[in-house]
Amino acid sequence: MSNIIPFSESALPAHLRKDSNETLADDLIVSGGGFPVMSIKGKVFTIKRGDEDTILMRPDDDETPASGIEVVLLRAQKAVTKTFYSTGYTDGADAKPTCYSNDGIAPATDAEDPQCNKCAICPHNQWGSRITDNGKEAKACQDNKRIAIAAPGTINDPMLLRIPPGSFKALTEYAKLLKTRGLDYNMVLTRVSFEAAAAVPQLKFKPMGFLDAATYEKVKAEFNSDLVQDIIGITGAPVPPVAEDTPAGDADDSEAARKAKQDAIAKAKAEDAKAKAEEAKAEEAKAPAKQRAPAKKRAPAKTTEAPKRELKLTQAAIDEGYTLKDFKDAEWHDDDIVAEGWAEWVEVEAKAPPKKRAPAKKALAKKEPEAEPEVAETKQADPLVDVPVDDALADALAELDDLNFDD
Fold this sequence. Notes:
It is a single chain. The protein has helices at 168-180, 213-223, 226-232, 248-286, 315-319, 324-329, 334-339, 391-402; strands at 37-39, 46-49, 52-55, 57-58, 61-65, 68-76, 81-84, 99-101, 130-131, 137-138, 142-150, 159-163, 188-194, 203-210, 308-313, 343-348. The protein is an alpha+beta fold and 407 residues long. The strands form 4 sheets. Strands 1, 2, 3, 6, 7, 8, 11, 12, 13 and 14 form a 10-stranded mixed β-sheet that branches. Strands 4-5 form a two-stranded antiparallel ribbon.
């Protein structure tokens, strides 16, 4: 039987004392996400630390939730992150997402169930893949901007603030304001508050002042800390160290095994597709042969120009108050705007080429009216003088002229 020393002993036995303060006890600690999260659900700022929720109240009224907080933006993830829950997301839940991406391009390497190789073509990333509680179309895969924030007095206690898509425009405008002054976002104290007129949590940002030298030094020290990188999602998956006495070939073998597994999966998929194709071909052979229709004459190829297209904002983007200029100013690519569901391509009807101007009409010489043809005047015959007579009658008339008649 071993000689167990009672735990109640006040002094640690000499053989258990260590030269350093490192302890394996940390390996047993289970934390809720590893860092606190600033929730904005219900337009209320709530700090979530594991199972503990703390609602931030107004300084002058401990019974009214604060409408704004003043924090330092320690570091922001440059990319738009994506998160998908197959059963929907419940705010405050500890369940891991079904699939997520920290760069908005492809699923993370440790995603539980990657839904697609590329985020841009994933069906859950398309507009209309989810219907909100108020009946509006949205995306099942939610977009967010991850920012590590901290109170100015506790820079070493950073937490995550997720910026929803409805606040992207305000965040972009805030960044432009700081840029005009030549400032980085972690140089100032920022007030984050809710847009009063918005029905859902929509944030706005305002600079309150410059950080003092001591606080700014702490901010710079936290910028590259493991915790801050973990909060914004740029920490890579941990790689187990290779022991010094491990042959170099083992690492290659591991990589080869991973590649062999991927090849095997690809081969299985190809064989499955081939089997389905052969099955479909066999079914088609069983069906009665259809009489082949006479081949149609091929129409001459038409030489048409490719249709022109332009970006058009979706109704969701318009409801959020976005304009195409907002995306251009934020250096978004056209295809990214479409992939995120904020716009769509529409064809533009080609304008008919302008008609050629008709040549000027020549002035025609005025045509003089034609003169009526002259008709030769014919002398009318005198019925009493010019009547022709025969010779007998002429002789009779002459005899009458010779006779003298007295009254």
